[in-house]
Design brief:
The complex is a heterodimer of chains A (302) and B (400). With 302 residues, chain A is an alpha/beta fold. Chain A contains ten helices and 14 strands. Chain A has helices spanning 21-27, 49-61, 79-91, 103-108, 130-135, 150-158, 183-190, 239-242, 258-269, 274-281, and strands at residues 10-14, 31-35, 65-70, 96-99, 117-119, 141-143, 165-171, 175-179, 204-208, 216-221, 224-228, 232-233, 248-251, 285-286. An eight-stranded parallel barrel of chain A has the order 1-2-3-4-5-6-7-13. Chain A has a four-stranded antiparallel β-sheet with strand order 8-11-10-9, covered by helices on one side. Chain A has a two-stranded parallel ribbon with strand order 12-14. In chain A, β6, α6 (150-158) and β7 (165-171) form a beta-alpha-beta unit. In chain A, α9 (258-269) runs antiparallel to α10. Chain A starts with 9 loop residues before the first strand and ends in a 16-residue tail after the last strand. Chain B has 400 residues and is an alpha/beta fold. Chain B is built from ten helices and 20 strands. In chain B, the strands form four sheets. An eight-stranded parallel beta barrel of chain B has the order 1-2-3-4-5-6-7-11, surrounded by six helices. In chain B, a hairpin with a 2-residue loop joins β8 (199-203) and β9. The longest helix of chain B has 19 residues, at 247-265. Chain B starts with a strand and ends in a 7-residue tail after the last strand. Classes of the chains: A alpha/beta (302), B alpha/beta (400). At the A-B interface, α4, α5, α6, β8 and α7 of A face α4, α5, α6, α7 and β8 of B. β9 of chain A pairs antiparallel with β8 of chain B.
């Protein structure tokens, strides 16, 4: 749990509706995160540019910050859109831009916007050298990889003597892969199951033949297919440690109902609510890779 | 127009030699450290030195992969390893991690090739790395022919593309499926290929289709039909995937692409069916063109067939030949009998059909079958069989 007086990191929460701003602030959220309507995948709530113009004014008046999540890979034909979108974000004085593809750096730098970028590749940022590397590009921050242990996070953070902000995605559904292939669509075509609704639907999952009862959520939109871990991640105990050396703690809201999401934020702020949260939702959660070291093993049984 | 490099994988020294002899201009290999494909037979420094000497004697190149994404505990010893690679004479190092890239640039003068693990999908990203000091960028496998064409006109450095072999179904470097399902780290060489397993698809707990029929597995990439166009572009290197593939597979795939490239530049192309037929003699997975025609369709996925068998069985590899007695010595790789029709492929030559008569062991004892793996077998044949020639069972086809 996070004691109020020790809070150093900011809770970053996805915003789904403008009317949630005050409520999320009352829960202790410092930063709101929204998805763009053109460069975000793996989401069910998007905001247009005109909506964002209205939103950011209100958010700043509420003394909160606003991040925009741009989590698609950029192919050549996307570059003009991305460049234009960054120019828009500069014009509204955005507080942070979460980027999945390093290409955004090359587009942001000529605009003088690189100091707003938070590189969040999901994987790749796995060792204590990475903060040094990305500091040299004067970006705002990097989000550490989802597959490293708590010890690794600790070591990376303790060695971060740079200006760069470190963050983690500490709560919610965790992606396992992102494919450009329309895997569900291709399967339904193959099986001639054309009436099944699948695009941007959040009620699909897959099960592996030898893992009875284990469900991996799967999601497809126009950017490709995403597969997720069977358990959500929670960090109720670990956030105490993170509070001393991380800047941002991202909560994932995708594939989660509002009650559960709000309850999770409350539990991060008030340790007395953790038991109730775990009683209601604990069966869906685990600790991810915090205490599970992955490695190269030549023989592992499926 | 410059002929692009044909780049082949090599899991061990024998495969390295075979790939180069069969027409690869360069090979990429994994050392015992800092490399993905940990289950491939990785090279010790001594092996690397021998491989480099072999390649350089043929005026060819050796690249070493150090393309893992290291965690804190994997970082020690890198500088010394890189210096040893430089002393061994390797021609470049393939890397993905900023840490490894920076150390290569700092402690050696070796060129760096950016691994496809960084999933570079546009020229802005590629040009960032070129300006950073990278010599070559291996492009993401998710690119169409049109996108590759654009790259070839706008990239500020060398580009390399995959033309044949296995494909990750995820964008490379961003997958933790294996980590989650087997605790094996895909970005540190432990990928368990969990994407190729059997799954069932559900919607609201309702099974969609049949149980265990949802497959994410991709057919292997095969670019033969696209190669003439690719050869007309400014691409530095055409890469074959498969450091864990057999010597026969490597020899066959390299042999066919070498033939195709040479035929193209001699303006003497055969039909695509000819090259496809030759390559199918060693393929054990179905193939398709990946993303070359754009976003993939069901035809690029494997659903009902997990694998397919090569249509011609690899039975032996050439060892030696006596011109006076016309006796060939080969090493057995699969069971075969006398009176079989066999096909021999040899670097730079068209396949040759031949019907075996008697087969013998090295002591001259006539055998009713070659039963024992790696056993040396002799037979009489009216043309030379050279070391590393590939010998396989054959049914005559339209290519003969």
């Amino acid at each position: 749990m996070l004691e109020k007086e020790e809070i150093k990191l900011k809770l970053v929460a996805p915003l789904h509706h403008e009317k949630e701003i005050d409520f999320l602030k009352s829960l202790g959220v410092s930063v709101l995160m929204i998805n763009s309507d053109c460069l975000t995948t793996r989401s069910s709530h998007f905001f247009s540019q005109s909506q964002i113009v209205t939103l950011i004014k209100k958010i700043h008046e509420t003394n909160l910050e606003l991040y925009v999540n741009l989590n698609t890979f950029l192919h050549e034909s996307d570059l003009i859109i991305a460049e234009s979108y960054l120019a828009f974000l500069k014009s509204i004085d955005i507080d942070g831009i979460i980027i999945f593809d390093w290409t955004y750096y090359t587009l942001a730098k000529p605009l003088g916007l690189e100091s707003k970028l938070i590189y969040q590749p999901g994987t790749l940022t796995t060792n204590l050298y990475d903060p040094w590397f990305y500091t040299s590009f004067n970006i705002k921050g990097i989000t550490l990889a989802r597959e490293i242990t708590l010890d690794s996070i600790n070591i990376i953070a303790q060695n971060n003597v740079n200006e760069i902000e470190l963050s983690i995605i500490g709560h919610g559904v965790i992606p396992m892969f992102y494919s450009r292939r329309p895997l569900i669509d291709n399967y339904l075509q193959t099986k001639k199951l054309n009436s099944i609704k699948y695009l941007s639907e959040t009620d699909l999952y897959i099960a592996e033949s030898t893992r009875e009862g284990v469900k991996y959520p799967i999601f497809e939109d126009r950017f490709g297919t995403h597969l997720f871990r069977n358990r959500y991640l929670e960090s109720f105990n670990e956030i105490q440690l993170f509070g001393t050396f991380l800047s941002d703690f991202f909560l994932e809201r995708f594939m989660m109902d509002d009650d559960e999401f709000f309850a999770s934020i409350k539990a991060y702020q008030n340790h007395k609510l953790i038991d109730e949260f775990m009683k209601n939702y604990g069966h869906k959660y685990d600790k991810g890779f915090y205490y599970k070291s992955t490695s190269l093993k030549l023989e592992v049984k499926r | 127009m410059k002929t692009p490099e044909l780049l082949a994988p090599a899991g061990d020294l024998e495969k390295l030699k075979i790939a180069l002899l069969y027409g690869a201009d360069a090979v990429y290999i994994g050392g015992t450290e800092f490399s993905l494909r940990a289950r491939a037979s990785n090279f010790t420094l001594k092996d690397i030195r021998e491989g480099v000497d072999f390649a350089h004697n043929l005026h060819k190149k050796v690249y070493v992969t150090a393309n893992m994404i290291p965690h804190n505990e994997d970082m020690a010893g890198l500088d010394e390893y890189l210096k040893q690679l430089e002393i061994a004479g390797v021609d470049a190092v393939i890397a993905a991690s900023p840490y490894i890239i920076d150390r290569i640039l700092k402690v050696t003068s070796l060129p760096v090739h950016l691994s496809t693990q960084q999933s570079v999908t546009n020229t802005k990203h590629a040009n960032f790395w070129f300006e950073y000091g990278i010599e070559r960028v291996v492009l993401a496998r998710e690119l169409s022919l049109d996108e590759i064409t654009y790259f070839s006109n706008h990239a500020k450095g060398e580009i390399e593309i995959f033309i044949h072999g296995g494909m990750c179904v995820s964008y490379s470097g961003r997958c933790t499926l294996s980590n989650t399902m087997t605790s094996r780290d895909a970005n540190r060489g432990g990928c368990a290929h969990s994407c190729r397993w059997f799954y069932s698809l559900f919607k609201n707990d309702l099974l969609i289709g049949e149980a265990n029929s949802f497959r994410m597995s991709s057919k292997d990439l095969d670019s033969i039909g696209y190669l003439p166009k690719l050869l007309s572009l400014n691409i530095a290197s055409l890469k074959i995937e498969g450091r864990m593939k057999s010597a026969h597979y490597i020899a066959t795939v390299v042999y066919v692409y070498r033939m195709l490239i040479d035929d193209y530049f001699k303006d003497n192309l055969k039909s695509f069916e000819y090259y496809e037929k030759e390559i199918s003699k060693a393929e054990n997975r179905e193939t398709s063109h990946g993303f070359l025609a754009g976003i993939t369709t069901p035809k690029q996925q494997l659903y009902d067939d997990f694998s397919t068998s090569p249509n011609q069985e690899f039975i032996a590899i050439g060892i030696d030949y006596d011109d006076q007695t016309q006796m060939a010595i080969v090493e057995q790789r699969n069971h075969f009998k006398p009176n079989s029709t066999i096909e021999i492929i040899s670097p730079g030559q068209l396949p040759v059909l031949f019907t075996l008569e008697k087969i013998m062991d090295l002591d001259g004892n006539e055998l009713d079958a070659a039963r024992h793996p790696l056993q040396k077998i002799c037979f009489k044949v009216p043309f030379r069989i050279k070391k590393f020639d590939m010998i396989r069972m054959c049914q005559p086809c339209q290519n003969h």
